[in-house]
Specification:
It is built from 13 helices and 13 strands. It is of the alpha/beta class and 375 residues long.
């Protein structure tokens, strides 16, 4: 642990595996100043610093104060609660928690919590124009009042899932039919509408498939309250890829999307534990670095989704590949955009990543062609 601070863009110093790039370690052009500042701060010789820096691994946007605040604010937005402003001396959210602790209360019902939030003036403002045209898809636990408060329509899938897994008696075909019922409406071709995706990667991907890019529907996903919609700006996405051979005789590929977090090590363990017939493990990450701001806007997100689909198509067509395993650590909106562009002719499986700090793991999600077997 070090209290060293730098104004450098740390993302540019990292590889796709979130280790320091060799040019930084060797004190190459563009990295000399920060290399030397850190070495002097640690008070060690050059050889020792190079050995030390080769052992480091970073996880951006996950456990920093800024990252934790952003994740917390994402949750508040999804519940229709005002976000925390760390620059302000008065923090009503903290006052509410302190009151909760002083009164020795063990729980709030959804209605009493809503009343407390109203009293503390923490309920988000009235519907914006965007919210007036927003459809919410929810598979995660959420209070009824907040689920309905910000949107014109909502699809409640909370009772079809336990955490990120389907409950007994539900199939992915059931989920697909529910999504097509709420998303494939004529009015969504006449004017722009928005999607709030409080749901799993698989549900986000299926939603995208139901409104694919040639369908004529104008439904754009909301990411942190901002629509990921095209503005016509042409962007060449800057992505990094790395390849790791797992089995020479394998006939499948695994693709890791390291945008929100770096999960390549977890994927490698999953492949080994579940004995997947994977020939190559491919990691895709933004050159700007892994974290909460790895994708800047809708134009960049769309360009990235297009690039990822083209890349996977090229891999499957160039080699004798019979299936694709997709392991995202990315915004739900990215999975929606990928679903809109899906055109693989071979089986695809999407895996769900649990961001719980105590149990961080992948589990199997939806597979195409769809399995209609009841869980």
């Amino acid at each position: 642990m070090s209290n060293w601070r730098t104004t450098a863009d740390l993302g540019k110093c990292l590889s796709s595996e979130c280790s320091l790039v060799d040019v930084f370690i060797r004190k190459g052009d563009g990295f000399k100043r920060n290399h030397e500042l850190w070495r002097v701060h640690l008070g060690i010789e050059e050889t020792e610093f190079q050995d030390f820096s080769r052992t480091l691994r970073f996880e951006l946007g996950s456990h920093s104060l800024e990252g934790l605040t952003e994740r917390f604010n994402d949750k508040l937005r999804s519940f229709g609660i005002k976000t925390v402003d760390m620059t302000q001396p008065i923090k009503p959210h903290l006052d509410l928690v302190r009151e909760f602790l002083r009164n020795n209360r063990n729980e709030w019902s959804s209605s009493s919590l809503f009343s407390e939030l109203e009293r503390a003036k923490l309920i988000a403002d009235a519907l914006t124009v965007t919210q007036q045209r927003t459809i919410r898809i929810c598979s995660f636990p959420m209070a009824d009042e907040m689920l309905k408060s910000e949107t014109i329509q909502f699809l409640d899938l909370r009772f079809n899932f336990k955490n990120r897994e389907l409950v007994t008696g539900t199939t992915w075909q059931d989920i697909e039919q529910a999504l097509s019922g709420i998303l494939q409406k004529p009015e969504y071709k006449k004017r722009t509408y928005f999607l709030q995706l409080d749901c799993t990667y698989s549900v986000s991907f299926i939603a995208g498939k139901q409104t694919n890019v040639v369908s004529g529907y104008t439904l754009h996903p909301l990411q942190k309250g901002v629509a990921w919609a095209p503005t016509g700006r042409r962007i060449q996405p800057e992505l990094m890829t790395s390849f790791d051979t797992i089995r020479e005789d394998g006939s499948e590929i695994a693709v890791v999307l390291n945008f929100s977090q770096s999960t390549t090590d977890e994927v490698r363990k999953y492949i080994k534990l579940n004995k997947l017939n994977v020939q190559k493990l491919i990691t895709i990450s933004p050159k700007a670095g892994v974290g909460s701001v790895s994708v800047s806007d809708g134009d960049e997100a769309i360009a990235i989704a297009d690039a990822i689909i083209r890349f996977i198509l090229h891999l499957t067509q160039a080699g004798n590949i019979h299936a694709v395993h997709l392991f995202p650590a990315a915004p739900n909106s990215m999975l929606y955009l990928l679903g809109q562009r899906y055109r693989l002719q071979i089986p695809l499986t999407i895996y769900e990543y649990s961001f719980n700090d105590d149990i961080r793991k992948y589990s199997r999600g939806v597979s195409y062609p769809l399995d209609t077997t009841k869980e």
